[in-house]
UniProtKB/TrEMBL annotation, chain A:
InterPro entries: MlaB-like_STAS, MlaB_ABC_Transporter, STAS_dom, STAS_dom_sf. Coiled coil: none annotated. Residues 13-107 form the STAS domain. It comes from Steroidobacter gossypii. It comes from the Bacteria. PROSITE patterns: STAS. CDD domains: STAS_anti-anti-sigma_factors. It holds the Pfam family STAS_2. This is STAS domain-containing protein. Signal peptide: none annotated.
UniProtKB/TrEMBL annotation, chain B:
CDD domains: CheA_reg, HATPase_CheA-like, HPT. Residues 1-102 form the HPt domain. It is an enzyme of class 2 (transferase). InterPro entries: Bact_Chemotaxis_CheA, CheA-like_dim, CheA-like_homodim_sf, CheW-like_dom_sf, CheW-lke_dom, HATPase_C_sf, HATPase_dom, His_kinase_dom. It comes from the Bacteria. Transmembrane segments: none annotated. Its EC number is 2.7.13.3. The keyword Transmembrane does not apply. Involved in the transmission of sensory signals from the chemoreceptors to the flagellar motors. CheA is autophosphorylated; it can transfer its phosphate group to either CheB or CheY. It comes from Steroidobacter gossypii. This is Chemotaxis protein CheA. SUPFAM superfamilies: ATPase domain of HSP90 chaperone/DNA topoisomerase II/histidine kinase, CheW-like, Histidine-containing phosphotransfer domain, HPT domain, Homodimeric domain of signal transducing histidine kinase. Residues 313-514 form the Histidine kinase domain. Keywords: ATP-binding, Chemotaxis, Kinase, Nucleotide-binding, Phosphoprotein, Transferase, Two-component regulatory system.
């Protein structure tokens, strides 16, 4: 199941469990809210994500954009195997490239 | 929609499960290509998706696990071996049971759920639990293709918004693609990602620009997206062409779109129609034929040549319409044959023989009702062949045959009828043993004068079985006679060829359709009856010496042989005095001859059978009705049941039948 928390290390958000279409709306809402409350760069801890599909990937990309909109970066830290697999397959960098996202943010 | 669509879901699921079974059996035998795995995946995927629509969570949950395993097989992360195919077969059976529960409208059953969990555990143990190994996929696939990069393709795919909600994960298609070659470059297309406010987490906004080095052709690559063809915009270009197509790109795009449409329309060319509607149509056409015939007669009487001409043209058209309508009911026998792969596998395993099923003439078409009714007799014959026909591997080796026995199912058309053969290369029938048994059972008194085929025909007698040991499957002495009765009820015949030591072939001959009959019209009093023409052997006049003996004598001497007979007048209590000249129609049915006494012989006719209403279903001796061109009703005789009546009422002893054989 899912549990996410903004844990003590500043700027760190963790999502546990499944990040798939079945939970996407719920995860998106919570994650976006968490990202919006951050006043600096965000480190997204995905070490306990068991399943990760296209919906999960979109949520991460979207969260990265939201962070970028307020001039911050969103990096994925400690991706689980399931997450790493998708990021590699889709050529999505673990660390947000400032240039790319700031460009998008202005769009 | 749920209530009305549910039967369609069940019917479709069963079809898909049947396809899945065939493909799994292919996999188990180790001669399956990627199409088989795709077919299995497609079946599981579609069933899961549709069950989701109906809120059948039990099926969704179970099938989801199966589908995930299949997805890994498709991505080459897991080999499809015998063991996996066997487990998946069990899973398939379980899905079938789950669908069955839905079909019966029952609530979920605890035992079934527990059984499902045990199966999933088994599946998990075999496949190594989680999907961890999926990560290695790319490495393996890349290594395999690195040596021979082949052609370079540029694939541009944009997934439609609904694809995720339709239960597809675009990533699985990309993963599958990576098994077809090496993905040299991949760029995620995020152009369609909306602003955060408009973001719908369940919608898909992603596209992929992929460069693939692969030896596969365009079709295989396109095939990777088969399941999402309608949920994505796909462009595949060969790199070599890319430069050229950069200018002619638009044209290529429309061409691709057109080819995609072509494929789709081919899929939609067949249509599912309720069988009852079809029956109703054929029934109406039958009436049309009748009304047409009446009109023709009236027109002829009126003597107007123009009217005559147009009614003839009409009659021809009506006949064509009838033939076309009857063709609608024709279906291929292939799927029915394929179902026996499973029967053969299971039974052979149970009794420890190695047996292969061969299928021939799968495209032969016959009436759907016939196919449904022939399945049981076929099952019996196939089981018989496996159980009694094929020897054990040791015996086969000793006889110089291959250890693996072969059962062959074959269908073909032969002069207006369909022949279905069940053949085995087993031990064949032993003439002496059949004779001994027949004498012991009192079926015959002495077999020395019988030909081989007459001897073999004895095994179709009720209560006959030569099996030395009674197994779980057959050999209980009920069987061949039931097969024969079922086939006869379909107006078909059974015959048997056998060579000791070489094998046995059972040949079932069936009419092409049950809806039309070539009949012989006879009259008794004011009533008309139709006898199936293929059963009529000859017609003879009933001599005066037999006419006075109503109710007493029940057989005549026909050229030295005893011919039992029945009188339709007595049988149906027709209140009229016998005509001056009566005739006997000699019928050969199920290897026996008997006569039917009638007043008038009215000739041949082809007619559409109308089933009797339920009210009359218990009447013996009548199989249906038809309306003659004159508007008069004629009853179609059910000859096998008349034969039973004839033999039991006349108390014909067994001896006459032997006399007939001479």
């Amino acid at each position: 199941m899912l549990s996410q928390q903004t844990s003590s290390p500043r700027g760190e958000v963790r999502i546990d469990g499944e990040m798939t279409i079945y939970r996407a709306s719920e995860v998106a809402q919570t994650l976006f809210a968490a990202v919006r409350t951050q006043d600096g760069d965000v480190r997204l801890d995905l070490s306990n994500v068991t399943e990760f599909d296209t919906a999960g990937l979109q949520v991460v990309l979207m969260a990265r954009r939201i962070a970028a909109a307020s001039g911050h970066r969103l990096d994925v830290v400690r991706p689980s195997e399931a997450v790493m697999d998708v990021l590699k397959l889709c050529n999505v960098p673990q660390h947000a490239e400032q240039s790319m996202d700031s460009e998008r943010a202005t769009a | 929609m749920t209530d009305t669509a549910l039967p369609t879901f069940i019917a479709e699921s069963r079809e898909l499960l049947a396809e899945m079974e065939v493909a799994l059996l292919e996999c188990e035998q180790g001669n399956a290509g990627p199409e088989a795995v795709n077919a299995i995946f497609r079946a599981a995927h579609t069933i899961k998706g549709s069950s989701g629509l109906f809120g059948l969570d039990g099926i969704v949950a179970f099938t989801h696990v199966v589908e995930s395993v299949l997805d890994r097989v498709r991505a080459a992360a897991l080999p499809m071996d015998r063991a996996l195919a066997a487990i998946l077969l069990e899973c398939r059976d379980h899905i079938e049971r789950l669908v069955g529960v839905v079909a019966d409208g029952k609530a979920d059953d605890g035992d079934l759920i527990a059984a499902g969990e045990r199966l999933l555990q088994k599946l998990n143990m075999h496949t190594g639990g989680s999907s961890a190994s999926a990560a290695n996929t790319d490495v393996v696939a890349t290594a395999a293709y690195a040596a021979a990069p082949g052609e370079r393709w540029h694939i541009s795919v944009m997934f439609h918004t609904e694809v995720l909600r339709n239960g597809m994960d675009p990533l699985s298609f990309i993963r599958y693609l990576s098994t077809l070659g090496e993905i040299t470059h991949l760029q995620l297309n995020t152009e369609r990602l909306p602003s955060p406010e408009d973001f719908d987490a369940e919608a898909c906004y992603l596209g992929f620009e992929i460069e693939l080095a692969s030896q596969e052709g365009r079709q295989r690559i396109e095939g990777a997206f088969e399941f999402v063809r309608e949920d994505c915009t796909l462009q595949i270009r060969s790199k070599a062409q890319a430069a050229y197509e950069a200018t002619a790109g638009r044209e290529a795009e429309t061409r691709d779109a057109r080819s995609a449409r072509d494929i789709k329309s081919a899929d939609n060319r067949s249509l599912r129609v309720d069988g009852d509607k079809l029956d109703k149509l054929i029934d109406l056409i039958g009436e049309l034929v009748t009304a047409g015939a009446a009109t023709t007669i009236t027109a002829r009487k009126a003597g107007l040549s123009e009217l005559n001409e147009s009614t003839l043209r009409l009659a021809r058209l009506v006949e064509e319409v009838r033939d076309q309508a009857l063709k609608l009911r024709m279906v291929q026998i292939g799927p029915t044959f394929s179902r026996f792969q499973r029967v053969v596998r299971d039974v052979a395993r149970e009794i420890g023989k190695e047996i292969r099923l061969e299928i021939g003439g799968a495209e032969t078409e016959l009436d759907k009702t016939l196919i449904e009714s022939i399945t049981d007799p076929l099952t019996h014959l196939v089981r018989n062949a496996i159980d009694h026909g094929i020897e054990t591997a040791d015996v086969r080796r000793a006889r110089g045959k291959g250890a693996e026995g072969v059962v062959r199912l074959e269908a073909y058309h032969d002069s207006g009828s369909v022949v279905i053969e069940v053949a085995d290369d087993g031990g064949g029938l032993k003439r002496e043993r059949i004779l001994a048994k027949a004498i012991e059972r009192g079926l015959i008194t002495d077999g020395s004068s019988l030909t081989d085929s007459q001897v073999f025909a004895l095994i179709f007698e009720p209560g006959f079985s030569t099996a030395e040991q009674v197994t779980n499957l057959s050999g209980r002495g009920v069987g061949m006679d039931v097969v024969k009765r079922n086939v006869n009820a379909l107006r078909g015949t059974v015959e048997l060829d056998s060579k000791e030591g070489e094998g046995t072939t059972v040949r079932i001959r069936l009419p092409l359709t049950l809806a039309i009959i070539d009949g012989f019209l006879v009259g008794v009093g004011g009533s008309s009856f139709v006898i199936p023409l293929e059963l009529v052997e000859e017609c003879v006049e009933l001599g005066d010496e037999h006419r006075s003996t109503d109710g007493e004598q029940r057989y005549i001497n026909l050229r030295g042989a005893v011919l039992p007979f029945i009188r339709l007048r007595e049988m149906f209590a027709i209140r009229s005095t016998a005509a001056r000249r009566e005739s006997i129609v000699v019928i050969r049915c199920a290897g026996q001859r008997f006569g039917i006494v009638v007043d008038e012989l009215l000739g041949e006719l082809q007619t559409v059978i109308k089933p009797l209403s339920r009210l009359f279903s218990r009447i013996r001796g009548i199989g249906g009705s038809t309306i003659l061109g004159t508007g008069q009703l004629a009853l179609i005789l059910d000859v096998p049941s008349l034969l039973d009546l004839c033999l039991s009422s006349s108390q014909a002893p067994v001896a006459p039948r032997i006399a007939l054989a001479d």
